[in-house]
Design a protein that fits this description.
With about 550 residues, this protein is an alpha/beta fold. It folds into 2 domains: about 1-155, no CATH class; about 200-550, 3-Layer(aba) Sandwich (Alkaline Phosphatase, subunit A), CATH 3.40.720.10. The protein has 18 helices and 16 strands. Strands 5-8-3-10-11-4-12 form a 7-stranded mixed sheet. Helix 2 packs across helix 6 and helix 3 runs antiparallel to helix 4 (about 60-80).
């Protein structure tokens, strides 16, 4: 090899306007993918590769090395032109362990290495191999490059015209959301992100300093569920599950912001404050942002119920140190083991956990409890206790939704006034798209961070239209763009309104639905450890941190 390299100066390159059959097949195949919108096409890099394919070395060993280089270059360029971004295995390992990394690699192979297309490539290669002498494949490749160039120029002019019009048309639907100004380029999007973050720093919900006089006590139950986005429920054909009809109110578009557990739960615990960056959130504790801390200052007793031990990734410790959550979770020893997580730890039965809450909180004499629950039963890689193979997502989701429906019914039967709030952490990403394989959550797209948030007022002497509880009712859908600040505002208004008071004179509003009027909205901008995601000028964009904003192709 080194002898061959030393001979480079003595070996002249040969040039031919005829490219080989493999190179011709490669470019025609890529043109096909591009024209079918299944791949991008970096014109400059591809044209450089095309030019390199016109050269060869006369010395055989050196020419073999050169062709090997071209093949590697071509494979890397194939990935570069795909809509798949680069991902960092260490982030996946921290969330899922070695098993998760292996599963993601397997998913990548099965979902993106399509054997049908591979077979088509082989057939195309054989055809070109025999017809290359007659068809002059180089000419076809050149026509392909000219066509791509013409399409790019046309698309650029259309894009500029559309953007110039969009600047005038795009306005915020809420005064809480800053208007999107400028063309859809990286600098304008970055400016919008910084404007958004600056406005969010100034937003805060402050709970009352004391409970109202003649306050009618009520409990608050917040159920924080790992791996349950609206898209996952839709993919599992469970959008019509009865649970979603039991809520008094549900949000059409609620952003979990983060696509991983700890930061998502931390944002929920710190819902008094506007959206901050993940690095700011991990920098220091801010007690004024902590919803449960604010409730404790009003005399609420806090309880923590997990279906897991909270040890992996210092989850519970982080929520305690940065979110003010108590570290002493409810005793798990008497609860049945339902699953084993990817790290082998036990995940307890959610039905048993809910029963424990009913027995310990709902049926005792204490008043004004705030309970934070975190459920891990939908996490990727969970195995039924005693089994080696992980259970698929849909059956676990169906069981959890059934258990939640029963839980709400049992709270009703306890006749304790309770505000029940379901807020998932993030989605499971069980469906892939062009840029991100299934189960990968590095880029926090809206299919991962758009979560089903539901609120119910249980045990009240009134419902959303006043008067007694109606057994059958229609869930009120809250339209707009919301995030965690809305949760704190709901709690604040419910306290100030004395929402469960029997006497109308002791309440500020006539209807519970008034509590949901004009809630604080938040622009739908998501952030993971390594990336941002947002919709700007009606287009989806993402940015790997430290890089420029790029279009996200779904």
């Amino acid at each position: 090899m080194f002898k061959a390299l030393k001979k480079i100066p003595q070996n002249k390159l040969s040039f031919s306007l005829r490219i080989g059959s493999l190179a011709g097949t490669y470019f025609i195949f890529k043109f096909g993918l591009y024209f079918m919108a299944m791949s991008g096409f970096d014109f400059a890099f591809n044209f450089v590769l095309f030019l390199l394919c016109l050269f060869s070395f006369r010395q055989k060993t050196l020419n073999k090395l050169y062709k090997s280089f071209l093949i590697i270059f071509g494979l890397l360029l194939l990935y570069h032109d795909s809509y798949l971004p680069m991902f960092k295995p260490q982030v996946i390992y921290e969330e899922k362990g070695f098993t998760g990394v292996f599963e993601l690699v397997s998913t990548f192979i099965t979902e993106y290495f399509d054997f049908a297309y591979f077979g088509l490539f082989i057939i195309l290669f054989i055809a070109i191999f025999f017809l290359n002498d007659f068809l002059k494949i180089t000419s076809f490749v050149m026509v392909g490059f000219i066509t791509v160039s013409a399409l790019n120029i046309s698309a650029l002019s259309v894009s500029k015209e559309a953007n110039s019009q969009a600047v005038q048309n795009v306005v915020a639907d809420s005064a809480d959301i800053p208007p999107q100004i400028g063309t859809a380029d990286s600098q304008s999007i970055e400016n919008y992100l910084q404007t958004f973050l600056e406005l969010e720093r100034q937003r805060i919900v402050t709970l009352p300093s004391a409970l109202p006089e003649q306050f009618t006590p009520f409990d608050i139950v917040i159920v924080n569920i790992c791996s349950m986005a609206t898209d996952d429920i839709e993919a599992s054909n469970l959008l019509k599950h009865p649970l979603f009809r039991t809520f008094d109110f549900s949000f059409e578009t609620f952003n979990s912001v983060s696509s991983y557990s700890t930061p998502s739960s931390l944002r929920l615990l710190r819902s008094n404050c506007g959206q901050m960056t993940e690095s700011q959130m991990y920098k220091e504790r801010r007690s004024e942002c902590e919803l449960i801390t604010s409730l404790e200052q009003l005399g609420y007793q806090s309880e923590v119920y997990f279906d897991h031990n909270g040890k992996y990734g210092d989850y519970l410790k982080t929520l305690h140190d940065l979110g003010g959550l108590k570290e002493n979770i409810h005793d798990l020893s008497k609860l049945a083991v339902k699953y084993n997580a990817f790290d082998g730890s036990a995940i307890r039965s959610d039905a048993d956990l809910f029963t424990a809450y009913i027995n310990n909180v709902a049926n005792n004499g204490s008043v004004n409890n705030i309970t934070f629950m975190n459920l891990l039963s939908l996490h990727d890689g969970n195995r039924l206790a005693g089994e080696k193979k992980s259970q698929s997502y849909a059956p676990r989701l169906k069981l959890l939704l059934d258990d939640l429906e029963d839980f709400i019914e049992n709270i009703k039967k306890s006749k304790r006034n309770t505000i029940f709030i379901m807020v998932p952490e993030h989605g499971a990403a069980i469906r892939s798209d062009k840029m991100q394989i299934a189960k990968l959550r590095e880029i926090p797209t809206d299919k991962i961070t758009r979560i089903p948030v539901g609120v119910s007022f249980l045990g009240a002497q009134r419902n959303a239209v006043g008067g007694g509880i109606a057994k059958a009712h229609k869930t009120k859908r809250i339209k707009g763009f919301y995030s965690y600040l809305a949760i704190s505002e709901i709690v604040k208004r419910s306290i100030e309104d004395n929402v469960f008071a029997n006497n109308e004179e002791e309440r500020k509003t006539d209807k519970i639905e008034d509590i949901f009027y004009d809630l604080p909205q938040t622009a739908f901008i998501a952030e993971s450890t390594n990336a941002y995601y947002m919709n700007f000028q009606h287009q989806d964009f993402y940015k790997l941190k430290g890089e420029l904003w790029e279009k996200y192709i779904k």
